[in-house]
Amino acid sequence: MDKPRLGHINFINCLPLDWGLTEGGLGAGLEIRPAVPATLNSLMVSGELDVSPVSSIVYAQNPDKLLILPNLSISAPGALQSIVVVAKRPLADLGGRPVALTAKSATSHGLLKIILGKAYGVEPEYSVSSLSLADGVLDGADAALFIGDDALFAYHNRRSGLLYYDLGDEWRKLTGGAMVYALWVADRGFAARRPDLLQLAYDKVRDGFRYGLTHLEAAAAARAGATPLTAEQVVRYIGLLDYRLDEARRQALTNYYRLAADRGLIPAVPTLAFAAVKP
Ligand SMILES: C=C(O[C@@H]1C=C(C(=O)O)C=C[C@H]1O)C(=O)O
């Protein structure tokens, strides 16, 4: 095994990294597994990947198995267009009502529960669903949570009579801070066995992002056709995200964990344990 097994989110939010891994040539020497976050979460927890982005809540559920890679995340200081609730009635009126949660997410399930409980004082009946708006998810629910490209599509193609809420904006109103949606993590056993391959994977993800962010307009122009957005909208969307994990974002992450632990969504607020890689 000389190629690290790297998970990769196949949403537009990782277009910069994707561009670096492909056009920038940084994907050479990696076994890359593209999938939606929920799939990467379970592959990482079951030990089928060595390094991967995961929903940030997954680290708090598995701190004994995972190490965080430094200064990488998918975060946003506020509104971001890709964590969206589409509702038939205002959020404040969802108490006891059916609310569908996208099967692709984990972090945003907790985010919505925290926001509805703390900011709106309501406790809906939640269920996980794979249905899209077009498939009729709102036939059986009063609101639906979408993430990633599904959310971007819904956000940019609004239907009359429905209400649209950007949870990044709702989170900023509730906490005054940023939200950390995803982290890059390594398997602890892999990190101990193959520090050389861990460093290789880390260097490629870090440099892949750098390459893609430097060439963002070219990446957006080339890939917009395969997305629900125009090239300009892709560039604007990526500009709403922040891929760092600096002190401010580590505090924002811990704040999310604190509120998630208060609701019993995670067993405890974990210490953030980082992989020993050279930045
Ligand atoms: C900003 C996003 O970040 C993500 C949200 C995740 C989640 O809710 O669990 C997981 C990974 C990221 O894709 C997004 O998907 O829109």
UniProtKB/TrEMBL annotation:
Pfam families: VitK2_biosynth. Gene3D superfamilies: Periplasmic binding protein-like II. Keywords: Lyase, Menaquinone biosynthesis. It catalyses: chorismate = 3-[(1-carboxyvinyl)-oxy]benzoate + H2O. The keyword Lyase applies. Pathway: Quinol/quinone metabolism; menaquinone biosynthesis. InterPro entries: Menaquinone_biosynth (IPR003773), MqnA (IPR030868). The keyword RNA-binding does not apply. Coiled coil: none annotated. Its EC number is 4.2.1.151. Belongs to the MqnA/MqnD family. MqnA subfamily. HAMAP family: MqnA (MF_00995). Catalyzes the dehydration of chorismate into 3-[(1-carboxyvinyl)oxy]benzoate, a step in the biosynthesis of menaquinone (MK, vitamin K2). This is Chorismate dehydratase. It comes from Anaeroselena agilis.
